[in-house]
Design goal:
The complex is a heterodimer of chains A (about 425) and B (about 170). By secondary structure, chain A is α/β, with parallel strands linked by helices. Helix content of chain A is about 35%, strand content about 10%. Chain A is built from ten helices and eleven strands. In chain A, strand 4, helix 7 and strand 5 form a beta-alpha-beta unit. In chain A, helix 1 packs antiparallel against helix 2, helix 4 runs parallel beside helix 5 and helix 4 packs across helix 8. The longest helix of chain A is centred in the C-terminal third of the chain and has 31 residues. Chain A is globular, with a radius of gyration of 29 Å. In chain A, about 35% of the residues are buried. The longest helix of chain B has 23 residues. Chain B has one domain: Ubiquitin Conjugating Enzyme. Helix content of chain B is about 35%, strand content about 15%. Chain B has about 170 residues and is of the alpha+beta class. Chain B contains four helices and five strands; from the N terminus they run H-H-E-E-E-E-E-H-H. The chains are: A alpha/beta (about 425), B alpha+beta (about 170). The interface between A and B is large, with 45 and 48 residues. The complex binds zinc ion (ZN). Zinc ion binds next to loops of chain A.
Chain lengths: ~425, ~170
């Protein structure tokens, strides 16, 4: 393209030379010339795709995309940052939260990303981060792959344009999570973590179903429909409450429900709230995968009050999800060994801390209370919820059988007969 | 049942309740559930016809009964407005309700999610959750779609977003 533009400039120049005297024509030629010069500059700054990097280097040079990340290791925050290239993360829902989470993980050099969405990019999405107006009309998965592979070609990207709540979409979702071709000797499923970044209860329940069946650790994220609060939650099948163990929690925004005007709109959204939630989600993901800091079991975000409630939820032994109950049984068997290991690790850490209190004089009379332990509740006890959290839906009523409530008209019990009966009604 | 009009309430109580908690991945239990769905839909359709309030047609679009298609209509100012209706039975059904879609109205109203899924009132999901697994497709239509059409069709017509199919000036009838 640059060569073409240069030729064009030459042509314009000779055209100007051949004109008998300065005229109108000359000025338009001048204008054309400056346009071509501008285009030439643009062409020079056109994007250059970076090549793949074989190994993550800690060398601090301008050309190393990973130097600032590897510095985490030098500073002692992370033991082995390079392990990030072994991990696969599945992101379900590439909207305001999922797309930003995908970009963050891509920039962190995650090994492999699996992206799921059935939607297309719309102009109405432009109040959020990540997607660009020229991507309108593309599927979100295609548009995301395009941007992400430009940002970091080292990440293995797999995209799935499907709706996980449908029978077919769900089967494809499950088999893609089982696929272990990226790291054949990995235990369990083919992914290390599933991130749910969907915007509805139905899709969250589908992710919950898949992860319970596959014994797959996952994180849930959400932003309220009024766009001013959000949350992230870690779910380990059998060990923590699953998404069906209790009606979902919401962070109370403090706005009175009765004064909230819902007429004429479904949902509002802000790039800020979604960006914050994506940041909290990926931070928790990095801590879990690279084993540093404390992984939050539940972290809420109330943007109106800048309040961050935390809590922990044990599974419900009466959960309506059969796969959840199976995982709970399995967990009870491994629990004693797992807890012994945690205690041993804590003791080892205590021993390695230098002896003696840090401030013997305590000049300011500060009393240090251990508030690091989050409030722990049973999944079902709604009274014991920490401040600022409420239930979004009621629990199902006690299931009662209706004895002999079968209407007398239902004499047919054959599905074909029933179908024909409905068709007959539909015909007129 | 706070927040529901008396008409919806009384209709709802007459639709037979379901008893089997099974979704499309539950094999034989799903077939049992499907029979209950048919019985409830047959009863609801018969009831609408005898009350002179026939307002939808729905039938399974595949043998498994996981996809349903049909039509629904609403009469406003003596004119009948008819729309295609479709939905899938989600894998987590009946814990989660089917998401009812009116694809022809996609993008024409704010009270809709992408793909033409209708935006239900704040009252729908709590009531559905409370009554799992007793509510089925018929209940979703009665509680979800009927009030939606009653609220949105007049607005869509009055704002000119939709026109009656016999309206001579209309060339963009969907
Ligand atoms: Zn559970």
């Amino acid at each position: 393209m640059e060569a073409e533009l240069k030729e064009m400039l030459n042509d314009l120049d000779s055209l100007k030379q051949s004109l008998p005297d300065p005229s109108n024509l000359a000025s338009s030629i001048l204008k054309l010339q400056s346009r071509v010069e501008h285009l030439t500059k643009l062409a020079k700054s056109a994007p250059v795709r970076r090549t793949k990097v074989q190994d993550m280097s800690a060398e601090v040079v301008d050309s190393n995309p990973y130097s600032r990340l590897m510095a985490l290791q030098r500073m002692g925050i992370v033991d082995n940052y390079e392990r990030i290239r072994d991990f696969s993360v599945a992101i379900v829902g590439i909207g305001g939260v999922g797309s930003v989470a995908a970009e963050m993980l891509t920039r962190c050099g995650i090994g492999r990303l699996l992206l799921y969405d059935y939607d297309k990019v719309e102009l109405a999405n432009m109040n959020r981060l990540f997607f660009r107006p020229e991507q309108v009309g593309m599927t979100k998965t295609d548009a995301a792959s395009q941007t992400l592979s430009d940002i970091n070609p080292d990440v293995v990207l797999e995209s799935f344009t499907l709706n996980i709540t449908t029978v077919q979409g769900f089967e494809t979702f499950m088999s893609s999570l089982r696929n272990k071709s990226f790291r054949p000797n990995k235990e369990g499923s083919g992914v290390d973590l599933v991130l749910s970044c969907v915007d509805n209860y139905e899709a969250r329940m589908a992710v919950n179903q898949a992860c319970n069946e596959l014994n797959q650790t996952w994180m849930e994220s959400g932003v309220s429909e009024d766009a001013v609060s959000g949350h992230i939650q870690l779910l380990i099948p059998g060990e923590t409450a699953c998404f069906a163990c209790a009606p979902p929690l919401v962070v109370a925004s403090g706005v009175d429900e009765r004064t909230l005007k819902r007429e004429g709109v479904c949902a509002a959204s802000l790039p800020t709230t979604m960006g914050v939630v994506a940041g909290l989600l990926v931070q928790n993901t990095l801590k879990l995968l690279l084993q540093f800091g404390q992984v939050s079991p539940y972290l809420g975000y109330n943007s109106l009050k800048d309040f961050f409630p935390t809590m922990e939820m044990r599974p419900n032994p009466q959960c309506s999800n059969a796969a959840c109950l199976e995982r709970q049984k399995e967990y009870l068997l491994v629990k004693p060994a797992r807890e012994a290991a945690i205690i041993a690790k804590m003791e080892a850490e205590v021993l390695s801390v230098p002896e003696g209190p840090l401030h013997t004089d305590n000049e300011w009379n500060i009393s240090v209370v251990d508030d690091s332990a989050p409030e722990r509740t049973d999944a079902t006890s709604s009274d014991a919820l920490p401040d600022g959290l409420t239930r979004e839906l009621p629990a199902a009523d006690e299931f009662q059988k209706f004895p002999a409530a079968e209407p007398a008209t239902a004499t047919f019990d054959d599905i074909e007969e029933l179908r024909k009966q409905l068709d007959a009604l539909n015909a007129d | 049942m706070e927040g529901w009009d008396p008409n919806t309430k009384s209709t709802l109580t007459q639709i037979p309740l379901l008893t089997t908690k099974a979704g499309p991945r539950d094999g034989a239990a799903w077939t049992t559930r499907l029979k209950e769905e048919y019985k409830a839909l047959i009863a609801y359709t018969q009831m609408n016809k005898s009350n002179d309030n026939d307002w939808f047609r729905i039938s399974a679009a595949n043998p498994e009964g996981t996809r349903w298609t049909g039509k629904c209509w609403y009469v406003h100012n003596l004119l009948k407005y008819e729309f295609d209706l479709q939905f899938d039975i989600p894998v987590t059904y009946p814990s989660t309700a089917p998401e009812l879609e009116l694809p022809q109205l996609d993008g024409k109203t704010q009270k809709m999610y992408r793909g033409g899924k209708i935006c239900l009132t704040v009252h729908f999901k709590p009531l559905w959750a409370k009554n799992c697994p007793r509510f089925g497709i018929a209940h979703a239509l009665c509680l979800g779609l009927a009030p939606w059409l009653a609220a949105e069709v007049p607005v869509l017509v009055d704002s000119g977003m939709i026109k009656h199919k016999d309206d001579a000036t209309s060339t963009s009838e969907s």
